Amino acid sequence: MKGAPVAKALTERLVPQVEELVSQGVRPTLAIVRVGEREDDLSYERGATKRADKVGLGLRKFVLPADCSQERLAGVIREVNEDASIHGCLLFRPLPKTLDEAAICALLDPAKDVDCITQGSLYGVFAGQPVGFPPCTAEAVVELLDYYQVPLEGAKVTVVGRSLVIGKPVSMMLQARNATVTMCHTRTRDLAAACRNADVVVAAAGHIGTVGAACASPQQVVVDVGINWDEKAGKLVGDVDFDSVEPVVRAITPVPGGVGSVTTAVLAKHVVEAAQRTVR
Ligand SMILES: Nc1nc(=O)c2c([nH]1)NC[C@@H]1CN(c3ccc(C(=O)N[C@@H](CCC(=O)O)C(=O)O)cc3)C=[N+]21
């Protein structure tokens, strides 16, 4: 299950909407805030830059060194908040450990929170209320499964990983679609069994090889959300051991070229929606 056709379908709907906004004098614009040079951040930035070009979004990049102070980063977020020509903000996470990530996230204007880093947006996802936007990657997983017509109603879905960025919110979104969701993590006793037993596995652990052949079963659909830098191979890989899992399962997403490309399309969609809200 490649991401490109899903992203293309999403993106095609956005182009006329951007044209309409531009004719009203508004160019939907995304601010990217990056601290340091993490490989996964740089990958997202490349993808988002290409997507913004295709859709016709404005893009402003704020890049700070990994050792920057809390005050300096806070200053950038305030600048984003005050700039009326910016409609959405993507702050790459995790931030370096020296920074207080929660305090930074709380500073962002909720109206510009296109990736669910503020508490109100998270509340929306957990309560099933239309407050803000869900995390782009979590929404991308659901978009991808819908595009490939993978049934969720009553399906057994195992989510591996419990982060606030992906594991927890995607679990809530899949449950909202009436899937029966099992949440697994580093302390799960028999991860392989919990995965083998599932119709759909969503791998969002953040570690290379978390989901291996023992987790796979025929008829299963595997969505790999992981973006890890493989030092030995010198390339980006997912959380799933693709070569051993792919021959067993019904369908699987590649990394790169899977969920990531859909994530950037969802991001563009959120920025367009945020801009539309400012003119209505
Ligand atoms: N607040 C926050 N939310 C995130 O969702 C988040 C984050 N921080 N920090 C970094 C990771 C990583 N991530 C990627 C998303 C898309 C691609 C993507 O577009 N990948 C292209 C390839 C792009 C390329 O490498 O040229 C693809 O898979 O085809 C990559 C990585 C989201 N993350």
Automatic annotation (TrEMBL):
Keywords: Amino-acid biosynthesis, Histidine biosynthesis, Hydrolase, Methionine biosynthesis, Multifunctional enzyme, NADP, One-carbon metabolism, Oxidoreductase, Purine biosynthesis. Residues 135-277 form the Tetrahydrofolate dehydrogenase/cyclohydrolase NAD(P)-binding domain. It comes from Tractidigestivibacter scatoligenes (Olsenella scatoligenes). Pathway: One-carbon metabolism; tetrahydrofolate interconversion. Catalyzes the oxidation of 5,10-methylenetetrahydrofolate to 5,10-methenyltetrahydrofolate and then the hydrolysis of 5,10-methenyltetrahydrofolate to 10-formyltetrahydrofolate. GO terms for molecular function: methenyltetrahydrofolate cyclohydrolase activity; methylenetetrahydrofolate dehydrogenase (NADP+) activity. The keyword Calcium does not apply. It catalyses: (6R)-5,10-methylene-5,6,7,8-tetrahydrofolate + NADP(+) = (6R)-5,10-methenyltetrahydrofolate + NADPH; (6R)-5,10-methenyltetrahydrofolate + H2O = (6R)-10-formyltetrahydrofolate + H(+). PANTHER family: C-1-TETRAHYDROFOLATE SYNTHASE, CYTOPLASMIC, C-1-TETRAHYDROFOLATE SYNTHASE, CYTOPLASMIC-RELATED. The gene is folD. Pfam families: THF_DHG_CYH, THF_DHG_CYH_C. This is Bifunctional protein FolD. Its EC number is 1.5.1.5, 3.5.4.9. Transmembrane segments: none annotated. GO terms for cellular component: cytosol. Homodimer. NADP(+) binds at residues 161-163, 227. Residues 1-115 form the Tetrahydrofolate dehydrogenase/cyclohydrolase catalytic domain. Belongs to the tetrahydrofolate dehydrogenase/cyclohydrolase family. GO terms for biological process: L-histidine biosynthetic process; methionine biosynthetic process; purine nucleotide biosynthetic process; tetrahydrofolate interconversion.
